[in-house]
Write a structure and sequence with these properties.
InterPro entries: GlpE_sulfurtransferase, Rhodanese-like_dom, Rhodanese-like_dom_sf, ScdA-like_N_sf. It comes from Engelhardtia mirabilis. Residues 88-175 form the Rhodanese domain. This protein is of the alpha/beta class. The chain has 2 domains: 12-66, no CATH class; 74-169, Oxidized Rhodanese, domain 1 (3-Layer(aba) Sandwich). The protein is 44% helix and 9% strand. It has a 5-stranded parallel beta sheet with strand order 1-5-4-2-3. Helix 7 links the parallel strand 2 and strand 3 (112-113). Helix 2 (22-30) runs parallel beside helix 9. The two termini are 33 Å apart.
């Protein structure tokens, strides 16, 4: 894998342009950038973000961000693998992170909607619970999976390609819809 060149003097906007998964990686590893209390501005340099959050090993952060795409890849799971887990009776929670109006347009069989109003119910789950998050395309669910990984969950996944991939690989009867 070719490393993207980033430096501590670059702004977070520049880094996110070069490494789109950098924000997920920062939150997952350092609990930085996932909410307003731990956030940063696009104009902040990486050095400032590290200093503001008491991260002393800036070279380690640089190396970690350069591996962010690989980390995202390890968190995604193909629809065929999820279907195999379900067919085998493996214990997993399939959680749809889309808003109710999207779920109403096209439901993912076996998925429960994420209850954003009661997030504590998920945080109380055993940290090794196998959870697969899904959305329409796999982008929002990857953010949610990274959030849970950042809170110590060790078996969280994002459905690669989301509902669109599930429809094309597993169940073509699920309606397509535009966002």
């Amino acid at each position: 894998m070719t490393e993207t060149t980033i430096s501590p003097e670059m702004t977070m906007a520049e880094i996110l342009e070069r490494i789109p998964s950098a924000q997920r990686a920062l939150f997952q590893r350092y609990h930085v950038g996932g909410c307003s209390s731990c956030g940063f501005q696009p104009t902040d340099t990486l050095a400032k973000v590290c200093a503001d959050h008491n991260i002393l090993d800036v070279p380690e952060v640089l190396a970690y961000l350069n591996r962010a795409g690989e980390i995202d890849s390890k968190m995604t799971v193909d629809p065929t693998e999820v279907k195999a887990w379900m067919d085998a009776g493996d214990t997993l929670r399939l959680i749809d992170v889309r808003p109710a109006e999207e779920i109403a347009k096209a439901a993912l069989p076996g998925a429960e909607p994420l209850d954003y109003s009661n997030s504590q119910q998920y945080m109380d789950l055993p940290k090794d619970s196998r959870i697969v998050f899904a959305c329409k395309s796999g982008a929002r669910s990857l953010d949610v999976a990274a959030y849970f990984a950042g809170h110590g969950f060790t078996a969280v996944h994002s459905l690669k390609g989301g509902l669109d991939a599930w429809r094309s690989q597993i169940d073509s009867s699920i309606p397509d819809y535009a966002l």
